[in-house]
Amino acid sequence: MSVTVEAIKPTRANLKKSVKFGIDLYRGNDFFVPPLVLDEMATLSPEKNPAFEHCRAQSFMAYRDGKPVGRITAIINDLVNAKEGSKAMRFGWVDFIDDAEVVDALFKAAEDWGRAQGCVSVVGPMGFSDMDHEGMLIEGFDEPGTMATIYNYPYYPEHMRRMGFEKDVDWVEYRMKVPDAIPDKYMRIADIVRRKYKLRNIKFTSRKKIKEQYGLALFELINEAYNDLYGYSPLTRRQIDYYINEYIGILRLEDVSVVVDENDTLVAVGISMPSLSQALRRAHGRFLPMGWYHLLRAIKGHTDVVDLMLVAVKPEYQSKGVNALLFTDLIPAYIANGYKYAESNLELEGNESVQKQWEYFERRQHRRRRAWKKEL
Known about the structure:
The chain has 376 residues and is α+β, with helices and mostly antiparallel strands. Helices cover 35% and strands 27% of the residues. The chain has helices spanning 12-24, 37-43, 78-84, 100-116, 155-162, 184-197, 207-226, 237-247, 277-283, 291-299, 322-336, 352-356, and strands spanning 3-8, 55-64, 67-77, 88-96, 121-124, 136-139, 166-177, 200-202, 256-260, 266-274, 305-313, 341-343, 347-348, 363-375. Strands 1, 2, 3, 4, 5, 6, 7, 8, 9, 10, 11, 12, 13 and 14 form a 14-stranded mixed β-sheet that branches. It is globular and about 70 Å long. 40% of the residues are buried.
C-alpha cells in the first residue's frame, strides 16, 4: 500500500496518538527510555507550551494501510531565527519505520510546510527550546539512554544521509565513575577560587525557597550562560515560570549546588538528579496506575546513577575554576546517596571548557548525537 501523510491538528487525541507511536516503535528495546505521555503532549500543545508564543509548528503522521508508520513535527522558532538572522525550520519528535518511502514522504511533508512558511533550510532533531530533546543518536546504540536524550535506531542516520542531510554539529556524552572522595586537585582549585572571588556554596532544604529566592535568577543565568551556544533559544519569562513550576518541585535538593558571590548574586548552578531511566521504562510512559510509584522511588534515590542535567556559570566567571566549587559540593552528596556513575548528557563536541571539567574523573565517551542540516 502507498504511504499517506496527514497534517494533524494539535488535539489531545491526535497528540496522544503521535506520542504513543514514538513509544510503541521501541517496544522491547532495552536501551530506549520512554517519556511520560502527558509531558510530551503538553510540550506539543499550543495551549500549554508558552514557546508557541514565538514558535510556529505543524505535526505530521505517516500511515500505510491505515496504520501509523511515522511522525515528525516541523517547528519555526522565530526568536532564534531573528537572533541568528536565519530562515531555518527545525524538525523534532521524528520517528519512523525502516522504509525509504515512509521516510521520504514524511520529510517531504514537513519540508513543503517549511518552504510555504518562507524557510530556506531545515535542521534537527531540535525542539522548541534547549529544554526539549535534541540530537539524533549516531553512536552508542547499545547504551542505555537517559530521560534528557533521544534514543533512535541505527537506521535513522542512514536515512538522513540518503536524503542529502549533512552534519551541522555533534554532541558527545560521557559516563563517569563517581570517585570515592573529592579529587585533591578539585579541592585545591575550589579553595583558591572561593577565596579569590569571595564565592560560597548554598545548600537548600526547601524547594519553596529555591523558587522564591533563586527560581527566576536560575533561569536568567541559564539564558546568559548558554546564549552563544548552538541554536540556543532564550527562555521568555512565561517559559521560565512554566519550567520553575514543572521541574523545581521534583529536584532532590542535595543533588543541587548553587554558588553566589559576596552580594548573594547567583554565579553558578549545578543541577543533577537521580536517573529516572529505569523508572520510566517500568512506567511505559504512563504516570498511572503505577508509574508514579516507580518515579517516586527513583527520585528518592533508589538508583546508582546520577544524571548531570545542567551546569551554568555566569560568563565572566567561566574558565576560572568555578565548576570546582560545584563538584566539591556535589561529590560528597553523590557518595552519601550511593551513586556509582554519573551521566553527563549532551555537550557540544567542540566545547573544551565543559569537557575539561571531567578530566579528574574516570570516564568514557559512550554516545554521540548529531544535528543534521539541509538547504530547502
